[in-house]
Design brief:
single chain; alpha+beta; Immunoglobulin-like; 4 domains; 5-stranded mixed β-sheet; 9 helices; elongated; CuRO_UO_II; cell membrane; Cyt_o_ubiquinol_oxidase_su2
Length: about 400
């Protein structure tokens, strides 16, 4: 075995003090959920060391005892089986696997991120009076947006929460998959576009911490970090009041500008937030005039819109030809939103500040209205079954695509 040269050995020793700067926040967090998860890591490690330590020790012992120079060692060339040894080799690992499985099963259910908290600290059960604080987190390229529906404010790259109060996070993404992770508070959970994930957590002490995305999401990923502040209830109320007194309104037009890719965004506060903005982000309909996914799925569940919807359907190219937010959102193709009041639709479209949207383009891409060359009129005879269904169909006929 080669030995380290003196200069290399001295350098290795000099680097050891740097280990003192390692952050042990995973094993010493500030939140009860993260503490329970850290305990699971410690318990699992100790259970596995029950096998690893004896095996490593016996490996060294056997190598030393049965070395070639030890002539007093027992020599049994015909030995091939020991019932006691077989029981030890198989029984002990099996018991450890059973223990690990039991700990994992219990921990998976008790620490399910979708499950509301049963306690905020050891011995402190959550009661009906402990209303969770809802925070809506959106992963943008490459920054984080936090919406507080109860307080009616929003922030960019700053998360402030009250100490000791249960937290309920609703998490989504605007483009690609990210991962929301605050090691001092709870484990990570993914943020995905068009989907909503949940996380329940709590802070048991005040302080400043760091959150980040733990899933690679492009060029600005390394700077996708945000400050986390755990405040006392009084300080949180002051922080909320300060956020309300400064900043602008976060409406859909402002959000579409914020959604565009950018790096190293400074902390930003919004004094008010447009209602249901987070739900529109999840349903991919923050753009004015775009149909929401839940509306589209409801239409599909009822069998579609039939012939009346043909000139409303357009090719859906969401995040297909360019990264989300990098193109001209006003000219992207999408499924147009249904609206029974044209004035409301026009008012919604007028909120786009970048350019005015021509409503005539919402008739369809590559589709012509019924009655054009794409369709032909099928006349029905009095003897045909269609004649007896509806007088209106007898007069207007039915429209079939040309095969």
């Amino acid at each position: 075995m080669t030995r380290l040269r003196p200069p290399l050995a001295i350098a290795a020793v000099c680097l050891l003090p740097l280990l003192g700067g390692c952050n042990m926040v995973v094993l010493d967090p500030a939140g009860d959920v993260a503490q329970q998860q850290g305990d699971l890591v410690v318990i699992s490690t100790l259970l596995m060391l029950i096998i690893i330590v004896p095996v490593m020790a016996l490996t060294g012992y056997f190598a030393w005892k049965y070395r070639a120079a030890n002539e007093t060692a027992t020599y049994k060339p015909d030995w091939d089986h020991s019932t006691q040894l077989e029981l030890a080799i198989w029984a002990i690992p099996l018991l450890i696997i059973i223990c690990l499985g039991a700990v994992t099963w219990v921990g998976t259910h008790l620490l399910d991120p979708y499950r509301p908290l049963a306690r905020t600290a050891p011995g402190q059960a959550v009661t009906e009076k402990d209303k969770p604080l809802e925070v809506q987190a959106v992963a943008l390229n490459w920054k984080w947006l936090f919406i507080y529906p109860e307080q009616g404010i929003a922030t960019v790259n700053e998360l402030a929460v009250p100490e000791g109060r249960p937290l309920r996070f609703r998490i989504s993404s605007s483009s690609v998959m990210n991962s929301f992770y605050v090691p001092a508070m709870a484990g990570q959970i993914y943020a995905m576009p068009g989907m909503e994930t949940k996380l329940h957590a709590v802070f048991n002490e005040t302080g400043r911490f760091t959150g980040f995305s733990a899933n690679y999401s492009g060029a600005g990923f390394s700077n996708m970090r945000f400050g986390v502040r755990s405040l006392s209830p009084q300080d949180f109320a002051k922080w909320t009041a300060k956020a309300r007194s400064q900043g602008q309104t976060l409406d859909r037009a402002t959000y579409l500008k914020l959604e565009r890719p950018s790096e190293k965004e400074p902390v930003r506060h919004y004094a008010s937030v447009e209602p249901d903005l987070f739900d529109r982000i999840v349903n991919m309909c923050a753009e004015p005039g775009k149909m929401c996914m839940h509306d589209m799925m409801a239409i599909d569940a009822r069998g579609g819109m039939g012939l009346a919807g043909l000139h409303n359907v357009r090719q859906l190219s969401y995040d297909k030809h360019a990264a989300r937010g990098t193109g001209d959102t006003a000219s992207d193709r999408y499924i147009a939103e249904n609206c029974t009041n044209p004035e409301l639709l026009s008012a919604s479209l007028a909120r786009m500040e970048d350019r005015v949207i021509d409503l005539s383009t919402l008739t369809g891409a590559g589709l012509k209205r019924p009655g054009g060359p794409l369709f032909r009129k099928r006349e029905t005879s009095p003897q045909s079954p269609e004649h007896t269904k509806s007088p209106e169909l007898t007069q207007a006929g039915t429209m079939d695509p040309v095969s």
